[in-house]
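For the sake of transparency, this paper describes our internal protein records without simplification. Because each token names a local backbone shape, the row as a whole describes the fold. One such record is reproduced below, unchanged from the form in which we store it.
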Amino acid sequence: MTTGSGTVLVVEDEESIADVLAIALRYHRFEVMTAGTVRDALCLAERTRPDAALLDVMLPDGDGRALGRELRVRRPDLALVFLTARDAPAEIVGALGFGDDYITKPFDVDVVVARLTAVLRRTRPADVLPQRPPLRYGDLELDETTYSVRRAGRTVELTPTEYALLRFLVRNGGRIVPKDQLLRHVWQYEHTPPESTVVETYISYLRRKLDALGPPVITTRRGVGYGLA
């Protein structure tokens, strides 16, 4: 991290949009790098190791989602936020399968900064973390220093947002956590439209990964929220 807020890679081929984002992010004390192509973005990410990437989906030499997957393979801790004019539910759900947020164009630049900041709050560890004992629930073990997860002794590969969601459920033990609390504490959303399905989407991702290693561990209280069995 090169400043108090972190380093952001903005990947956007429209220079006017890239400039507006860069100006706003620098105002909020982010270090900013810009790239207009997949190739340039990969080179910058390799050299500078940013904390987060804002990715346009449609780039002149490739797909921003494919770029996001490649960046996530290289840097599992990198926060990914997509910027795109595509707003079909299938597009959003697909991108959230491995990214941390999805913002549609046209957008308010202040909203972009706020949501990027929220993503970093929940995905980026502090600069110096004390050694802490792992969180345990049943056969789940979460290492709060390395941000890794194991179930029944086997590693579970989670995105930063999936990890944050599971950690909040584990910290609440067997209690049912209402959906609005998950939105507030995991996604930092204070006011979210009632039709938002982001919690349900990420619960399904967690279930698919965790249930592959043992019996179902996440329970649903219909109309209320989620907890651990």
In short: The longest strand covers residues 79-84. The longest helix spans residues 109-123.
